[in-house]
Amino acid sequence: MKTQELLAVTTILSGLMSGFFFAYTFSVNLGLAKLNNKEYLTTMQSINKEVLNPIFYISFFGTLFSLVISSIIYFDIHSPKFFLIFFSCISYIIGVFGITAIRNVPLNNQIELFDISKASEESVQKMRAIFEKPWLFWNNIRTLASFVTFACLVIALACLNH
């Protein structure tokens, strides 16, 4: 694969992830907010199971790996293109991958272990309060970071022709 093709694939993968987080922030989460506590937790448990699929993994980890490889291939401290790619790599590693691993996945694991069928309405309400606001906050950070990643890659890709 040529370096230009790698950067194009990296940009596409990044765009898929940015779109994924964008859709969550500006549609899925808005719809989920309207559910009652039990429906909300049940739906989040279901979504968390379904999101772990090959297409998501290819996009999520593929973006990470291709960003790192692109940063190495385009290494040139005198090139603005390199800094755009490197910044997008850092944005994704910290703001998407890191936040997912350190913040969102532990919250997802916590909600997965919660047995809704045996819980009182009070404990269901408490679990939602523990989960929802932090999860939304960190997801919004991932949305912003994934957009920054994508935008920098689009600009870097445009720089290839100049």
TrEMBL record:
Keyword ATP-binding set for record: no
Transmembrane region(s): 12-35, 55-75, 82-102, 141-160
Domain of life: Bacteria
Annotated InterPro entries: Anthrone_oxy
Keyword annotations from UniProtKB, A to Z: Membrane, Transmembrane, Transmembrane helix
Pfam families: Anthrone_oxy
Name of this protein: DUF1772 domain-containing protein
Organism whose genome encodes this protein: Sphingobacterium anhuiense
